[in-house]
Records
---
Amino acid sequence: MTRQAEALEQLEMWKDAGDAWKVCVEAGVGGATSIAGRDRCARALSGTTSATAKTASHNKPKPKPRPKVSSALNDLGSADSEAVSRLRLANAAADRLDDEKFALSDVVADRVSRWRAGKENNLRALLASLDTVLWEGSGWKKVGMGELILPGKVKVVYMRGIGKCHPDKLPTTATTEQKMISAAVFAALNEAWDGFKRENGL
């Protein structure tokens, strides 16, 4: 449960992540981590504009770049040590990554939403259409619905799918967009798998 909440939070899907953290807290899973996650999502939701207005708009304006926050490192003057230089570089790299994620968030959310549409809780349909959401060169081979009749076979294909999109198993050459897609797909498959297990007594 916490993995799903973390993946949703990474995609900045604050409402869904908040709901997932809330379930974790109520189930007594994750302890302080779940409570902190729930609180983070609540703060993020209270500081954002209406998500429904954002998704209702077909002509989305280009995202504005995040304002640059002045760093205490800028006040150190020219007598920088090697450690301060490394820290500056790390901060700059983190800022670039955040900017890239922000710019890609709508594209990734749209791609994953189109894949999930109408089959959110249907694990077989999600697995059969997994090739439509994963990127070219992901190594995923399309699976037909005829191969997903038996629950045992569904479990095998699910495990292969999770292996392809698990955030820790992505190649080091994966792009930021690919990492964001894999995190969303990972969360969606886990959610559908939980329902599938209940329905089939696995």
---
Amino acid sequence: MPPVIRQFDAKGDLVLILSGEGTPNGCHFQVSSKHLMLASPGATQVPLPEDNAEALSIILDIVHTKTRDVETKLNWSTLMEIAILVDKYELLSAVGIFADLWFDNLNFNASQFEQFTEEGEESVYEAISMSWVFRRANEFREITKIAIIDSKKRLEDAMDLTLPHSIVGKSFIHVSQI
């Protein structure tokens, strides 16, 4: 089966080729390098073997001003994949208003994590990552407090977080002042 080809810009001068999990036949995205460079500093070379095609497609719709194509409600895992790419490519300024909308539409409430269990621990750390990446200070403080009080693991040992090293390993008192 041929790769999925998506044209974000018919006159785009760059083709992003994705391969990996979730893209068994690969995805080709025709984009404008000018739009990418405006949205993300240093985007002249973008290695994509690990990037999620659905999340990148949503981000590229925004970057290429195809905002009518952008869903206003996303599920948890898609938002997490977008957060990873926003952090990786420094795209918060490009997707910021959508990030707020997506986060708000999840009806996120830190109290949903108060029944902290090992089974739900991954979602707690994903919530920490997303609230950090999308600069959701109140949610970040609330969920981090729950994790620090209830988790048996140190934050840096919990999982592959998208958090900067400057906050990992600090106490909640230090984190809440950031």
